[in-house]
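Narrative summary of target 7.
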Amino acid sequence: MEIRVTFKEETPPDPEKYDVTLGEGLSSLDSLTNLEAGTKVNITITVPEDKEVDQFKVDGAVIDLAGALTYELTVSKNHNVTVSFKDITPPEPDKYIVTLGPNLNSGDPLTNLLAGDKVNITITIPEHKELYEFKVNGTPIHLGGLLTYELTVSGNHNVTVSFKDKLYTVTLGPNLNSGDSLTNLLAGSKVNITITVPTGQEVDVFQVDGTLIDLGGLLTYELTVSGNHNVTVSFKPITYTLNYSINDGLFTFQQQYAYNEQVSDDYVASEVGNQAWYYNGALVTFPFDYSYTENITLTATVAPLAESKFEYESITSTSVRITKINNTADDKVVIIPETIAGKM
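Modeled conformation, tokenized:
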């Protein structure tokens, strides 16, 4: 019988990502490999029975945990984390020990305590959690919203704390809506937000908690919940171009208007006089509201000035030179006939 073994090349780690190696007695629920710089890794120490922490080290450097059994490591390279233990020193007669669970710490001594000694305990709440129960020797203690507790020693004490998921709310301003739930949200939840743009306007500023978000022209946004959020949007009028065209573009000019802005004929009359203007074949009556959501063109037709209004002299048998125009009506737009006296 022939047995064949094949091997594959080991995939090298990403050169810009790092690993955290935990020694015996240490554990973490977070990923320990391919970590970017700045990643947080929460490490928990499991203390063997009748032992206590002797030294906690990160890359050989001793870290003072002040009695806590957890540590938050900020990744900056490959790390090696170790812990060593020592036998619990038995208390002297009539002296006591305070044991703190994970996420609890104190700057006060925790061993060889006399009855009546005070131990100030601080709670460290993990991100996106909130306090559920704080217990001393299994008895719940109401902290009234505080994250500190002063324990009066009366014996050996075991202090623990537990947490529950923190729930968040997303508040949407006017013209924003979502089909997703906006309350009782866990961190990491996704909320899809849609913007309703008023007619004739466009998005000016879209903000989450006061921070400007570039939507890249979209009218939707997917929010990843990381706390209570306030989402707002503001708008600005779209500027449209009103084009004026005389005799199929022989003369043209423009004005800018916002949606529903009133259009008067003051400017156009000052430029080209009183003309009959049409839009899509219908006579336009001034003033009117610009009720369009696009650029539009008004047209007018001006007839050539009567031949009798021109003074001219013949140049050749087929051409003349105009020497004077008798524009008695003071027309602002003068259209010269294609021919005068049958000549160009």
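Residues 20-87 form one domain.
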